[in-house]
Amino acid sequence: MLKTFDIVTVKPDAADADIRKLRGHIVSAIEPDQIGVFIYGLERVFCVHPDDVIATGMHLPDDEQPNPARIVHVTSRGEVSDR
Length: 83
Known about the structure:
83 residues, mainly beta, five-stranded antiparallel beta sheet, two-stranded antiparallel sheet, 7 strands, 0% helix, globular
């Protein structure tokens, strides 16, 4: 089961060809049809389907996580919102 701040790799057959095989970490709440993933190499958040990522088994270290009181919500266009 995926959790916020899990480090993931985007699957090679993911819907968004621009981020296939890239690594990042989850920055949003986990929704059944979408999650926000900060892609390291592109330094940008992408909205992806949870089935399009593979958990690496690693988690962003506590000292690198933003304030845990604020969960990020991401729109379907990959924009961070303050809903």
